[in-house]
Design a protein that fits this description.
alpha/beta; Rossmann fold; 8-stranded mixed sheet; 48% helix; globular; Pimeloyl-ACP methyl ester carboxylesterase; AB_hydrolase_1; AB_hydrolase_sf; catalytic activity
């Protein structure tokens, strides 16, 4: 069973949150979705974590501001900086104790990096594992959309101009009416060789929930972010980086640079897959999450046993 709630933030935005798993679990997993998507991207991974039974972690999945069922954001707050602060607030208030595993897809991964950059002491104290899926620490440095350089440059110019217009268009969602017409473009941009109808349908419905302000507003900070130095300083924690070899938005070089920056990170390249790995390759993404949870649980038990033994000797 899952619990749905709203988390009010200091600027009036209310985040829609879904919590599942044992309330007394020693470990919490926080799932962060991508740009123009929502928490439902992770539904197969939530099921996989729930299937761990007695070892299942508590799982928090939430819609970022301006996405899904969360309330709209001001244009000035449509930034990765703000998303990193929002994540800090989620961890403080919904997972106030115990180790945390963070998993981020696309913009969600960039949100994790911003949290590490803006709140380094909290990150070091709380975060015990990372799963970074189809994301980048270098903005649009490697993004070529799978096109020749000249064509990609023209497309980026058009995308940037269009994003500026959308960012000033407010919190409404008129594009819902044309979602069927957008399906081929979304299919080409986000998916690889295979695309199940259910996965494409969920993606389109998620895009339909994102406001024009969110679709356009976050584009600037997403394109500009540079956080490889931050990743290099996060310490030795279990970390897995996944990417599809047909990803047009965050191609393989994005994942390779992240994996090279994080000490001892594991890199998985999914053949034939595009940008939507939680939906395209749910088994691989779920496997990475489950493996990370198990590794963190083992580490936690190793730390707790000596502490418990010292307390027992002191009591005696």
């Amino acid at each position: 069973m899952s619990e749905r709630t709203e988390l009010p933030l200091t600027d009036g935005v209310r985040l829609h949150v879904e919590i599942s798993g044992p309330a007394d679990a020693p470990l919490t997993v926080v799932l962060l979705h991508g740009w123009c998507l929502d928490r439902r991207t992770w539904r197969q991974q939530v099921d996989a974590l729930r299937a761990l039974g007695r070892r299942a972690p508590r799982v928090i999945a939430y819609d970022a501001r301006g996405h899904g069922r969360s309330s709209a954001t001001r244009r000035s707050a449509a930034t990765l900086d703000q998303l990193g602060d929002d994540l800090a607030e989620v961890v403080r208030r919904l997972a106030p104790s115990g180790p945390v595993v963070l998993a981020g897809h696309s913009m969600g991964g960039m949100t994790i990096m911003e949290y590490a950059h803006r709140h380094p002491a909290e990150f070091a104290d709380r975060v015990a594992g990372l799963v970074l899926v189809s994301t980048t620490a270098e903005g649009h440095t490697h993004t070529r959309y799978g096109l020749p350089d000249r064509v990609a440059d023209l497309l980026r110019v058009g995308e940037t101009l269009g994003a500026g217009v959308l960012a000033r268009s407010g919190a409404w969602r008129p594009h819902r009416a044309v979602l069927p017409a957008l399906a081929p473009a979304v299919r080409w941009l986000l998916f690889g060789e295979r695309c199940a109808d259910e996965a494409l349908g969920l993606t389109l419905r998620s895009v339909g929930r994102a406001s024009l302000r969110s679709i356009g507003g976050f584009r600037t900070s997403i394109g500009a972010q540079q956080r490889l130095d931050t990743l290099a300083g996060i310490g030795d924690i279990p970390a897995t980086v996944l990417v599809g070899d047909r990803d047009r938005l965050t191609p393989v070089p994005c994942a390779e640079s992240i994996a090279a920056a994080i000490p001892h990170a594991e890199l998985t390249v999914c053949p034939g897959a595009g940008h939507m790995l939680p939906l395209e390759c749910p088994g691989e993404v779920s496997g990475a999450l489950v493996s990370t949870v198990r590794r963190v649980n083992r580490r936690t038990r190793k730390v707790c046993r000596p502490a418990a033994a010292r307390q027992s000797r002191q009591a005696a």
